[in-house]
């Protein structure tokens, strides 16, 4: 006899061009038993067996479309009624009918039901077996528990369970759950990992599943913490050449058999969209977006390469980068301020700027700051603007890890400050009649030059427009037109600078940084 099994529901100034002695989230559902941990699947979670589909197979059975049931609260009751289980063979039906549930399954399901009683509610069916891979399940008022030998007993509920149902439960693309739902992700998000994928939920996006090659690419970009954010749709197929795609909060991932899965976002994605996506002249993306040392992002497609302008995304105060991947931001409260802050920022592979270090207590000119056009030799003001770091120098040995050119200062090394000299605003390795020692800074005489980095201000040697502008170690008070920080901060900065990344510095009051 055959049986139908029912399915569950779900002072003083220093130097710098002035030859004077120094004088002057959404709340996460409560998961008992330590389920809320904020950790992400596959980050220290050995229980997961992720799908690693090759480029030729992103979805063995393409998804029919996005989930239509994504309740606002993943811990709430599912909006979809239980669906009946397909008819199973007589032996399995007999096992269920006779109550001969495997002892290991009963023990695990009972323990899980106790641990997650608040999420699941009361049991509404007995334990039933005979599903895929010899699995068993039990339905509760607000969810269900599924057990298999490979995964143990795992609960599902709410929006995540509803999406799992839409993918055909354990018989579908995801397989069995391998862990309970966990929360604490950005924006109050939650997730649950399955044998061949995962489901992520956030209040803004609902519960969406990811698997195969597209999921692997999303993982590479940093999951929901990365450039793409949470998925906003399920995987969809039927594109040109049998391709598939999935949309995320800030981008998309497209797959084709010949190109594999690649993410697109920002300006490159907008340009690709304007050119009719994969159906246009560019075709599918064939590689990852990469950030160049010029500060631009490039991505290769079947029909060519799309290149952005210089990236400024993530920089504070409306700053527009002139190029490069490293930027020192030296800022004050106003043009008259003599102290402020220096920050180290870097353009990373996610095509966003990130702050690396903050140096408080930075010092500026004893007469504050001036625009580059108003700056004059010996005026005691630090020039505003954005400049390169051509090289570094110091009376001390090169700090460990320093890659930028570093010139060890000896008693002959000088910086010419005589306007009109052919050596004006230039390093000199020995004095000469065109710019004598009295018309130059003898670098070895100043303690502040234990460590320094040259700011490429007035590189055209315009007469009387200022010279010897550096970032250097603190003296006894304000500088004569440079920026100074502590010796330890200078060492940190010098070991951080990478010449191939075209490092720069921008100097201005905070309100004027956007104009530099």
Q: Report, as a whole number of angstroms, the end-to-end distance.
A: 83 Å
Helical percentage: 10-25%
- Radius of gyration (CA) equals 32 Å
Shape: elongated
Query: In terms of structural class, how would the helical and strand content be classed?
Result: alpha+beta
| Main sheet properties | 5 strands, mixed
Average of per-residue pLDDT values: 85
Which strands sit side by side, in order, in the main sheet?
A: 18-17-16-30-21
Compute the number of helices: 7
Tally of DSSP β-strands? 30
The residue ranges in which pLDDT falls below 50 over 5 or more consecutive positions are 1-14, 18-99
Strand content: 25-35%
Protein name: L,D-transpeptidase family protein
Domain L,D-TPase catalytic: 357-499
Keywords: Signal
Pfam families: LGFP, YkuD
Keywords:
signal; LD_TPept_cat_dom; 30 strands; 5-stranded mixed beta sheet; 516 residues; alpha+beta
Task: Describe what you observe in this structure.
The relative contact order is 0.12. The protein is elongated, with a radius of gyration of 32 Å. The N and C termini lie far apart (83 Å). The protein is an alpha+beta fold and 516 residues long. It contains 7 helices and 30 strands. The longest helix is centred in the N-terminal third of the chain and has 13 residues. The strands form 8 sheets. It has a 5-stranded mixed β-sheet, with no helix packed on it.
